[in-house]
Amino acid sequence: MGKETSMAHNKAQVIELILPKDIWVGNKQAPVKLVMHGDYESEACAKANEVVNELMEKYGDQMQFNFRHFPLTKIHPFAQKAAEASVGAAQEGKFWPMHNILFAHRRRLGTISLKEYAKDAGVTDKNFLTKLVDSVYGWSVRADLLEGADMGIRDVPFFYINGEEYKGGVNTSAMSKVIDGFLKKKVAVKTSSKAAAKKRA
Fold first, then answer.
1. Which of 24, 121, 124, 166 could pair with 94 in a Cys bridge, judged by C-beta atoms 3.0 to 4.6 Å apart?
2. What is the pTM of this model?
3. What is the 3-state secondary structure (H, E, C) of 121-169?
């Protein structure tokens, strides 16, 4: 009986987790939604994250960003635990500081280091390391990975802009052109609906 209660309690805790798909940065009403699937041990993803930071600075309230986990565990043995650590930090609202710290320290992602980074990011959970060792956040990272694989993702970084697969170069210039295209479309739609409203009036 005690065991069942304990299991039910653990299950309830798992259900209450803040999941990666719900962790966005930027204006909720932004006309451009950028999603990156990535791996914290990947050099290419670290560079892509710098591009994202530049884009966020450039577009401000016009863009919102979400990061989804796709650890390439065959070549990056520390990527899975790093992703789990970011989900752990997210439970205290510290996902983004942790996210940037992990990319900055991508060559040193051992479990003890992850605990240090969590502290630097402002995480106060005394059981953070235990939860990492017990893979408490493992299933949420796995869910991201499976969802990405179902979408046809095989390598990262991989981007979606407003739900459309982005196939261009991962640099500020190339991505800005696509983002500007979406923003122009948005302005055109607003203008035509204003004109239609005027006509009706």
1. 121
2. 0.86
3. HCCCCCCHHHHHHCCCCHHHHHHHHHHHHHCCCCCCCEEEECCEEECCC
Phi-psi region of 145 (alpha: psi -120 to 50; beta: other; left: phi over 0): alpha
Residue 186 placed within a domain: no
Work out the percent of the chain whose per-residue pLDDT is above 70: 85
Asked if residue 109 is part of any domain, the answer here is yes
Whether residue 182 lies inside any domain: the answer is no
pLDDT tens-digit readout, 39-72 = 999 999 999 999 999 999 999 999 999 999 999 9
> Would you state the structure tokens that stand for residue 70, as one six-digit string?
């796709």
Can you list the positions of beta strands (E) in the chain?
Answer: 24-26, 32-38, 63-69, 158-161, 164-166
CATH number of the domain to which 28 belongs: 3.40.30.10
The number of distinct structural domains making up the chain is 1
Residue 32 backbone phi and psi in degrees, to 5: -115, 125
73 — phi, psi (to 5°)?
-65, -20
So what's the pLDDT on residue 16?
79
Omega prior to 157 cis, within 30 of 0: yes
Q: Is the pLDDT of residue 32 over 70?
A: yes
The answer to whether residue 1 sits within a structural domain is no
